[in-house]
Amino acid sequence: MNGGGQAVRARLQSGIAFVDGMFGVSRDPGRGFYLFRPHPSLRGAQVTIESSAGSTTLGRSGLFGPAVAPARNPYRPEELRVGISGGPVGYDIGSGRYLVVPGARTGIGLTVGSDAYRTVIATLIFEGSRFRSSTATCVTTRAWTGLSSPTDPDVWRCRT
Question: Is the pTM of this model over 0.85?
Fold first, then answer.
Protein backbone atom coordinates (compact mmCIF):
# COMPACT_ATOMS: atom_id res chain seq x y z
CA MET A 1 0.00 0.00 0.00
CA ASN A 2 1.12 3.50 -0.69
CA GLY A 3 1.06 6.33 1.77
CA GLY A 4 2.25 4.44 4.86
CA GLY A 5 -0.97 2.47 5.39
CA GLN A 6 -1.06 -0.99 6.90
CA ALA A 7 -2.66 -4.10 5.51
CA VAL A 8 -3.83 -7.09 7.50
CA ARG A 9 -4.81 -10.38 6.00
CA ALA A 10 -6.47 -13.06 8.12
CA ARG A 11 -7.61 -16.53 7.17
CA LEU A 12 -9.73 -18.96 9.13
CA GLN A 13 -10.16 -22.53 8.02
CA SER A 14 -12.09 -25.27 9.75
CA GLY A 15 -13.74 -28.58 9.00
CA ILE A 16 -16.95 -30.30 9.99
CA ALA A 17 -16.74 -34.00 10.81
CA PHE A 18 -19.84 -36.20 10.74
CA VAL A 19 -19.83 -39.98 11.06
CA ASP A 20 -22.33 -42.50 12.44
CA GLY A 21 -24.51 -39.85 14.09
CA MET A 22 -21.54 -38.09 15.73
CA PHE A 23 -20.66 -34.49 14.87
CA GLY A 24 -17.53 -32.45 15.56
CA VAL A 25 -15.77 -29.30 14.42
CA SER A 26 -12.01 -29.01 14.02
CA ARG A 27 -9.32 -27.85 11.66
CA ASP A 28 -9.66 -29.10 8.08
CA PRO A 29 -9.39 -32.92 8.21
CA GLY A 30 -8.05 -33.11 4.63
CA ARG A 31 -7.87 -36.74 3.48
CA GLY A 32 -10.08 -38.16 6.23
CA PHE A 33 -10.56 -38.05 9.98
CA TYR A 34 -10.97 -39.87 13.28
CA LEU A 35 -13.71 -38.77 15.65
CA PHE A 36 -13.54 -39.94 19.29
CA ARG A 37 -16.61 -39.18 21.37
CA PRO A 38 -16.61 -39.52 25.18
CA HIS A 39 -19.19 -42.02 26.48
CA PRO A 40 -22.05 -40.38 28.47
CA SER A 41 -20.49 -41.82 31.66
CA LEU A 42 -17.54 -39.47 30.98
CA ARG A 43 -19.67 -36.33 31.04
CA GLY A 44 -17.39 -33.34 31.52
CA ALA A 45 -14.18 -35.24 30.72
CA GLN A 46 -11.89 -34.27 27.86
CA VAL A 47 -10.76 -36.87 25.31
CA THR A 48 -7.30 -36.36 23.76
CA ILE A 49 -5.96 -38.08 20.63
CA GLU A 50 -2.18 -38.39 20.24
CA SER A 51 0.13 -39.98 17.71
CA SER A 52 1.53 -43.39 18.62
CA ALA A 53 4.77 -41.78 19.76
CA GLY A 54 2.74 -39.62 22.15
CA SER A 55 4.64 -36.53 21.15
CA THR A 56 1.96 -34.85 19.06
CA THR A 57 -1.59 -34.02 20.14
CA LEU A 58 -3.80 -34.50 17.09
CA GLY A 59 -7.14 -33.47 18.59
CA ARG A 60 -9.12 -33.00 21.79
CA SER A 61 -12.78 -32.81 22.70
CA GLY A 62 -14.25 -29.65 24.10
CA LEU A 63 -16.42 -26.71 23.14
CA PHE A 64 -16.80 -27.88 19.52
CA GLY A 65 -17.73 -31.47 20.37
CA PRO A 66 -15.82 -34.77 20.17
CA ALA A 67 -12.09 -35.00 19.53
CA VAL A 68 -11.40 -34.87 15.78
CA ALA A 69 -8.01 -35.69 14.26
CA PRO A 70 -6.90 -35.87 10.64
CA ALA A 71 -6.17 -39.26 9.04
CA ARG A 72 -2.67 -38.71 7.74
CA ASN A 73 -2.07 -41.73 5.48
CA PRO A 74 -5.02 -43.47 3.80
CA TYR A 75 -4.87 -47.29 3.60
CA ARG A 76 -1.97 -47.48 6.06
CA PRO A 77 -2.39 -48.73 9.62
CA GLU A 78 -1.98 -45.96 12.18
CA GLU A 79 -1.78 -46.40 15.93
CA LEU A 80 -3.45 -43.70 17.99
CA ARG A 81 -3.26 -43.14 21.73
CA VAL A 82 -6.42 -41.89 23.38
CA GLY A 83 -6.59 -40.51 26.90
CA ILE A 84 -9.05 -38.73 29.15
CA SER A 85 -8.67 -35.96 31.68
CA GLY A 86 -11.24 -34.80 34.20
CA GLY A 87 -13.02 -38.18 34.29
CA PRO A 88 -14.36 -39.98 37.35
CA VAL A 89 -11.85 -41.35 39.87
CA GLY A 90 -10.60 -44.78 38.82
CA TYR A 91 -12.22 -44.74 35.38
CA ASP A 92 -10.59 -47.32 33.11
CA ILE A 93 -10.84 -46.75 29.34
CA GLY A 94 -8.81 -49.86 28.59
CA SER A 95 -5.47 -49.78 26.81
CA GLY A 96 -6.16 -46.39 25.21
CA ARG A 97 -4.48 -47.57 22.00
CA TYR A 98 -6.33 -47.97 18.73
CA LEU A 99 -4.99 -49.42 15.50
CA VAL A 100 -7.00 -47.90 12.66
CA VAL A 101 -6.82 -48.22 8.88
CA PRO A 102 -8.57 -45.26 7.27
CA GLY A 103 -9.77 -45.19 3.70
CA ALA A 104 -9.32 -42.18 1.43
CA ARG A 105 -11.57 -39.28 2.42
CA THR A 106 -13.43 -41.30 5.06
CA GLY A 107 -14.26 -40.85 8.71
CA ILE A 108 -13.87 -43.30 11.57
CA GLY A 109 -15.97 -42.72 14.69
CA LEU A 110 -15.39 -44.37 18.06
CA THR A 111 -16.78 -43.94 21.56
CA VAL A 112 -14.29 -43.85 24.45
CA GLY A 113 -15.59 -45.49 27.64
CA SER A 114 -18.55 -47.78 28.32
CA ASP A 115 -21.43 -48.66 30.64
CA ALA A 116 -19.26 -51.38 32.18
CA TYR A 117 -17.67 -48.78 34.44
CA ARG A 118 -18.48 -48.81 38.15
CA THR A 119 -16.37 -47.43 40.99
CA VAL A 120 -16.75 -47.97 44.71
CA ILE A 121 -14.71 -45.87 47.11
CA ALA A 122 -14.78 -47.23 50.65
CA THR A 123 -13.00 -46.79 53.94
CA LEU A 124 -11.95 -50.08 55.51
CA ILE A 125 -11.67 -50.18 59.29
CA PHE A 126 -9.98 -53.13 61.00
CA GLU A 127 -10.90 -53.71 64.65
CA GLY A 128 -8.47 -55.29 67.04
CA SER A 129 -5.46 -54.31 69.08
CA ARG A 130 -4.48 -51.64 66.53
CA PHE A 131 -6.80 -49.26 64.74
CA ARG A 132 -6.01 -48.80 61.05
CA SER A 133 -7.90 -47.05 58.33
CA SER A 134 -7.36 -47.38 54.60
CA THR A 135 -9.18 -46.16 51.51
CA ALA A 136 -9.50 -48.39 48.47
CA THR A 137 -10.77 -47.67 44.97
CA CYS A 138 -12.42 -50.62 43.24
CA VAL A 139 -13.23 -50.69 39.54
CA THR A 140 -15.14 -53.27 37.56
CA THR A 141 -14.21 -54.07 33.99
CA ARG A 142 -17.56 -55.58 33.07
CA ALA A 143 -21.15 -54.65 33.76
CA TRP A 144 -22.77 -56.26 36.78
CA THR A 145 -26.07 -57.67 35.55
CA GLY A 146 -27.32 -59.16 38.80
CA LEU A 147 -26.58 -62.70 37.57
CA SER A 148 -23.28 -62.81 39.45
CA SER A 149 -22.53 -61.59 42.93
CA PRO A 150 -21.33 -57.96 43.17
CA THR A 151 -18.66 -59.25 45.57
CA ASP A 152 -17.29 -61.76 43.02
CA PRO A 153 -13.48 -61.14 42.89
CA ASP A 154 -13.50 -61.70 39.11
CA VAL A 155 -15.72 -58.64 38.70
CA TRP A 156 -13.78 -56.13 40.84
CA ARG A 157 -10.19 -54.91 40.79
CA CYS A 158 -9.16 -52.87 43.85
CA ARG A 159 -6.16 -50.82 44.85
CA THR A 160 -5.38 -48.95 48.04
Answer: no
